[in-house]
Structure formats: structure tokens, C-alpha cells
Design brief:
10 strands, 188 residues, alpha/beta, globular, Dihydrofolate Reductase, subunit A
């Protein structure tokens, strides 16, 4: 079975966005991009919520072609253009998009079927709404949580809709020079 892996930045007090949806407090740099890029290369499918997919689709398909594109832009754009994409969205129901499956209903069974297909792991970038939907059905197998050294106070919580106690095992951690710490957990 293909693992479903969540990549998420979070504040120290547990929020993935601020009270107005802001994410300008998230720290990213070349060290984090390189680390995440190593991980991304192990997946062949990206799962997003609609909002995150629209943000990604608006930038990554042509990011490598821009003048002064960074190493990260070139690498991630190349990866983004070749992987299959899955979007959880009720408003995009019925849309036909290249290399993209839209799941609008029966999330639990359709994602379970996706996990049964041949291939590498499925990675979720951000997409807190999608993560909350998947947590409701206990479908996420691994969590890569990038803890940012900031207290946000309120906003969108990292964990919501958890329906059962789920024991996790810490597989690894990495501290970055910018103060972010990545915690990697798998279901125990």
C-alpha cells in the first residue's frame, strides 16, 4: 500500500495559518527547500485541497522558465509537472484536467483506492482543509511537521477532525539554522 504523507508548516502553538489565513510567518530557506526536495523526490503523486492546488497551479508549471529561477524553483517545477495530482474539492467536481484527478465525494473510499494503486508515496503539501478531511478517516500514514519558532495565537489548527486515538512514532527530527524543527512521525 502506498503511504499518504503530510508535509505541513505549523506554529509552535499548533496553527497552520494565522487568524486571517496568513502564512507570512512561515520560515523557508535553501536548507529547508533542499531537505524537502529530497523527500519530495520519493513521491509520484501530490494531493491538495482546492485552495492550495490553485496556488500551486498558478506558479509551479512555469516557475523553472522564469528569468533568475532558483535551483529550488527549477527542481520543484520539474517535479510538479511530472507527478500526478489529486485535488479534494466539491467546487471542482467534474473538471477534466491533465494529470489531475478531482475527488468531490466519497473521500474515504476513493483515497483508500488511490493508496492501493501501484506507485510511490502520495504527498500532501499544506492543504489544511484536505488534511482535516483525511484525518476524519484516519488515512494519513506519516506526518512531516515543520515547527516554526513563533506563537500565532489563533488561526487554522494543525489537527482537526481526529476521530480516534492514533499513536505515532517519532522516526526522526532535524533542526534547521533558521530555527525551524522538522518532526517526522509515522503511525505506530
Amino acid at each position: 500500500m502506498r503511504p499518504l504523507v503530510s508535509f505541513m508548516h505549523v506554529s509552535l502553538d499548533g496553527f497552520v495559518t494565522g487568524p486571517n489565513g496568513e502564512m507570512n510567518w512561515i520560515k523557508v530557506d535553501d536548507e529547508i527547500f533542499d531537505y524537502a526536495g529530497e523527500r519530495t523526490s520519493k513521491s509520484d503523486t501530490a494531493l491538495y485541497g482546492r485552495v492550495t492546488w490553485e496556488m500551486m497551479e498558478g506558479y509551479w508549471p512555469t516557475a523553472a522558465d522564469k528569468p533568475n529561477a532558483s535551483k529550488h524553483d527549477i527542481e520543484h517545477s520539474t517535479w510538479y509537472n511530472k507527478v500526478d495530482k489529486v485535488v479534494l474539492s466539491k467546487t471542482m467536481e467534474g473538471k477534466q484536467l491533465p494529470n489531475t484527478i478531482v475527488i468531490s465525494d466519497d473521500i474515504e473510499h476513493r483515497v483508500k483506492a488511490l493508496k492501493q494503486q501501484a506507485g510511490k508515496e502520495i504527498i500532501i503539501f499544506g492543504s489544511p482543509g484536505a488534511v482535516h478531511s483525511l484525518l476524519e478517516y484516519n488515512l494519513i500514514d506519516e506526518f512531516w511537521v515543520f515547527v516554526n519558532p513563533i506563537l500565532v495565537g489563533k488561526g487554522t489548527p494543525l489537527f482537526k477532525n481526529v476521530q480516534q486515538i492514533t499513536k505515532l512514532q517519532l522516526v526522526g527530527s532535524k533542526a534547521f539554522s533558521c530555527g525551524v524543527v522538522c518532526l517526522h512521525y509515522k503511525k505506530a
